[in-house]
C-alpha cells in the first residue's frame, strides 16, 4: 500500500504515486487487508462505484504534494548542545498569550465552512447501515456568528492572529522540545494510507498487549509509580472508629494476578508455607481449620484430659508488616528476580484519603502490605511462615487468626505448655515488629471437669480467661456442646429478620419466589455456615434453628395455622435443617478425601478414636 498525502501534511519528504482506484475499492483489496490479521478490520464504507477522484478530494489529496512542502528550519549546533530543562510551562514563559493558558471551545464560532455541526439526524452516507440514507434535501448551512463566548470583551477582528512564517522541523524529540522552548507550541501532522478509506473497526488484542506489558514489568523487576497509588475511603463500623477501605488501580491488580500465579507455583513447589496455615490457599477453607481444632478438643474430652487454648489477636496485622524484614525473608525463599520485583512493588507507595469529592495530600506508606490487593495476603503469609512451633502444642492459623492448643492431664500441665509456646512467639513477634493485642486475645480451657484457672501471659500481661471463644465465625464453648453457638446464631437471625420483615413478611406484596430467594441468600447462610460441625449438637439445639425456619416459611407464604410444617417444606422444595446438615457433612468429607494438606487428610483417620462420651462426631453426620 502506497502512501497518500493529505493537504495538511507537514514535513513529509515524498509522496508515492497513487495506485489505480480499482485496487483500493475492490472486494479483493478488503479481503487482502483482513487476511493480514492486523490490529484493525477493513470493510466497505463507500459504494464500489464511487469515483476515486471524489474520494481524493474528500481526503485533500494532491497529485504533486512535494510542491506544497514547507521549508525545514535548521538549528545551529550551539542550540543542539543546550541542556534542556527537566520541566517547562509555556503558560509561564508567555503569560501575555491567553490562547496558551486557556484553549477555548471554538465548536460554535469562526468564519469558515467548519464553524459548527448541522442540526440533522444521524444518517448513512455512501454505505448500507442501520441508519437512513443521507440522500435528499440538504439542510441550510448554519449561520456563523463572529463571537465565541458571551462576556469575552476582545472584539473578534482583534482576536484573529495570522502566522507570519511557516516551516517544518526535524522529526526528532530534542529538536521539537527546542522549538517549543523557543517559539511555543507546534503542530503535528501525520501520513495516511489508501487503506484508510476501508477502515471499519479496531481489532486490538488488548489481553495480549496487557500481558506483554506486565511481563515486561516482571523482566525489569520494577513497578511503575501509578500502580502504587491507593485511594482510601473511611467507613464507620460501630464504635471502633473509622475503618479504611482501599481502592487500587485496575492495572495494578492485573499485574498482581500475573505475579500471584507465578508465586503460588513456586511456593507450592518449594513448600514454603507451613501445613498449619489454611488462609488464602487454594482448596483450604475456614471449616477445615475449625475441624482440626474441634478434633483435638474432642479427643482430649474423650480421654478426660484438659485442652487449653489461646486465640491470639494480631494488632493491625496487614498494616504493620515491616518492609525490610519481609525483604530479608524473601531473599532466603525466592529467586532474586522476584525479590527485586516485590521490593519495588512495596517501596515508595503512597495513599490519600477520599471523603466525598475531596482528597487529602498524598502520604508515604512505610509499612504494611496493600489491603484489597491480590498479592498482599500472600506476602503476609510469607512474612509469618516461620511462626515458631513446638511438638507439645498444636498451631492453627488462618492468615492472622492464630490458635495455639495444648493438651495435658491437668490444666496446670496444659497451661505450662501454652506459656512455653507463648514465650517463643512473643520473642518472635518482637524481632519482626509484630504486635499482639493482649486485651483481645483469649484463653479457654476445654474440659468437662471443674478446674482452677491458671493464668497465661503475653509480654507480662495476663490474657483474659473466657468460657467460650469465637474462632473463624464459630463459637466454641468450654464443653464443646455447641449450645452457645446455636444461641448466638438464633439471635443474629432474629435481628436480620426484623430488618427485612417488610420484604418477606405476611403483608409484603413480593412474590413467594423472591421471598424464598431472600431467605436463601441472607438468612440461611447465617445458620448453615459450619453446619457440618455444629450439627453434632443435641437434637434440642438443632430444633431451635428448625423452629426459626418454620416461622420464616410461614411468614413467606402467609400459611394458616392448620397447615403442617413438613407439608410447607415439601411444597416450597425447602430442605429441613437436619437435611442441610447431612448434605454439608457429606460434601465436607468428600473434600477432605482429595485435600492438598495432609493436616486436613488426617481428619479422616477415625478408626482408632477413643469413644467414651455419647456424642455425635462430624463424620457420623453424613
TrEMBL record:
Which terms does the record give in the GO molecular function aspect?
A: cysteine-type endopeptidase activity
Q: Pfam families, from UniProt?
A: Peptidase_C1, Propeptide_C1, RVT_1
Q: What processes in GO biological process is this protein linked to?
A: DNA biosynthetic process; proteolysis
- InterPro entries referenced in this protein's UniProt entry, alphabetically: DNA/RNA_pol_sf (IPR043502), Papain-like_cys_pep_sf (IPR038765), Peptidase_C1A_C (IPR000668), Propeptide_C1A (IPR012599), RT_dom (IPR000477)
Question: What keywords tag this UniProt record?
Answer: Disulfide bond, Hydrolase, Protease, Signal, Thiol protease
Q: Where are the transmembrane segments?
A: none
Which positions fall inside the Reverse transcriptase domain?
215-476
Presence of keyword Ribonucleoprotein: no
Q: Where is the signal peptide?
A: 1-17
User: Mind telling me what this protein is named?
Assistant: Reverse transcriptase domain-containing protein
Amino acid at each position: 500500500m502506497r502512501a497518500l498525502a493529505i493537504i495538511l501534511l507537514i514535513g513529509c519528504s515524498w509522496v508515492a504515486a497513487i495506485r489505480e482506484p480499482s485496487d483500493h475499492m475492490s472486494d479483493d483489496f478488503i479481503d487482502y487487508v483482513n487476511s493480514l490479521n492486523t490490529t484493525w478490520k477493513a470493510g466497505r464504507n463507500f459504494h464500489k462505484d464511487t469515483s476515486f477522484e471524489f474520494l481524493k478530494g474528500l481526503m485533500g489529496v494532491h497529485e504533486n504534494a512535494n510542491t506544497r512542502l514547507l521549508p525545514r528550519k535548521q538549528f545551529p549546533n550551539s542550540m543542539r548542545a543546550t541542556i534542556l530543562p527537566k520541566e517547562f510551562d509555556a503558560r509561564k514563559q508567555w503569560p501575555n498569550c491567553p490562547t496558551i493558558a486557556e484553549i477555548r471551545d471554538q465548536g460554535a464560532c469562526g468564519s469558515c465552512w467548519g464553524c459548527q455541526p448541522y442540526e440533522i439526524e444521524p444518517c448513512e452516507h455512501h454505505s448500507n447501515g442501520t441508519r437512513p440514507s443521507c440522500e435528499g434535501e440538504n439542510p441550510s448551512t448554519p449561520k456563523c456568528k463572529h463571537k465565541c463566548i458571551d462576556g469575552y470583551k476582545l472584539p473578534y477582528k482583534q482576536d484573529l492572529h495570522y502566522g507570519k512564517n511557516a516551516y517544518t522541523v526535524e522529526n526528532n524529540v530534542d529538536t521539537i522540545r527546542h522549538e517549543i522552548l523557543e517559539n511555543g507550541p507546534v503542530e503535528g501532522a501525520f501520513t495516511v494510507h489508501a487503506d484508510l478509506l476501508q477502515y471499519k473497526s479496531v481489532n486490538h488484542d488488548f489481553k495480549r498487549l496487557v500481558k506483554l506489558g506486565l511481563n515486561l514489568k516482571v523482566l525489569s523487576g520494577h513497578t511503575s509509580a501509578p500502580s502504587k497509588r491507593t485511594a482510601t475511603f473511611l467507613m464507620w463500623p460501630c464504635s471502633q472508629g473509622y475503618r479504611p477501605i482501599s481502592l487500587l488501580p485496575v492495572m495494578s491488580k492485573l499485574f498482581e494476578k500475573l505475579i500471584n500465579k507465578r508465586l503460588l507455583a513456586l511456593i507450592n513447589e518449594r513448600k514454603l508455607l507451613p501445613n498449619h496455615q489454611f488462609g488464602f490457599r487454594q482448596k483450604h477453607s475456614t471449616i477445615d481449620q475449625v475441624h482440626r481444632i474441634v478434633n483435638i478438643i474432642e479427643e482430649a474430652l474423650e480421654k478426660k484430659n484438659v485442652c487449653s487454648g489461646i486465640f491470639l489477636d494480631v494488632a493491625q496485622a496487614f498494616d504493620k508488616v515491616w518492609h525490610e524484614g519481609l525483604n530479608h525473608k524473601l531473599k532466603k525463599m525466592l529467586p532474586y528476580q522476584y525479590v527485586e520485583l516485590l521490593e519495588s512493588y512495596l517501596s515508595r507507595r503512597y495513599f490519600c484519603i477520599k471523603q466525598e469529592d475531596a482528597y487529602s495530600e498524598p502520604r508515604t506508606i512505610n509499612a504494611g502490605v496493600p489491603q484489597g490487593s491480590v498479592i498482599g495476603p500472600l506476602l503476609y503469609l510469607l512474612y509469618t511462615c516461620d511462626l515458631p512451633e513446638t511438638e507439645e502444642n498444636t498451631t492453627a492459623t488462618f492468615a492472622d487468626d492464630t490458635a495455639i492448643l495444648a493438651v495435658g492431664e491437668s490444666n496446670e500441665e496444659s497451661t505450662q505448655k501454652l506459656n512455653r509456646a507463648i514465650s517463643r512467639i512473643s520473642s518472635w513477634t518482637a524481632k519482626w515488629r509484630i504486635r499482639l493485642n493482649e486485651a483481645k486475645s483469649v484463653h479457654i480451657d476445654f474440659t468437662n471437669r471443674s478446674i482452677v484457672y491458671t493464668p497465661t501471659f503475653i509480654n507480662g500481661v495476663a490474657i483474659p480467661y473466657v468460657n467460650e471463644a469465637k474462632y473463624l465465625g464459630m463459637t466454641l464453648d468450654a464443653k464443646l456442646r455447641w449450645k452457645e453457638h446455636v444461641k448466638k446464631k438464633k439471635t443474629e437471625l432474629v435481628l436480620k429478620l426484623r430488618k427485612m420483615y417488610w420484604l418477606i413478611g405476611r403483608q409484603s406484596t413480593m412474590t413467594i419466589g423472591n421471598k424464598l430467594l431472600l431467605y436463601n441468600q441472607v438468612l440461611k447462610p447465617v445458620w448453615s455456615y459450619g453446619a457440618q460441625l455444629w450439627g453434632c449438637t443435641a437434637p434440642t439445639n438443632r430444633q431451635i434453628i428448625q423452629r426459626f425456619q418454620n416461622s420464616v416459611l410461614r411468614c413467606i407464604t402467609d400459611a394458616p395455622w392448620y397447615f403442617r410444617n413438613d407439608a410447607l417444606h415439601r411444597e416450597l422444595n425447602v430442605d429441613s435443617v437436619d437435611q442441610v446438615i447431612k448434605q454439608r457433612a457429606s460434601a465436607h468429607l468428600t473434600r477432605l478425601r482429595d485435600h492438598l494438606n495432609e493436616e486436613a487428610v488426617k481428619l479422616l483417620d477415625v478408626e482408632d478414636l477413643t469413644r467414651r462420651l455419647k456424642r455425635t462426631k462430624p463424620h457420623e453426620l453424613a
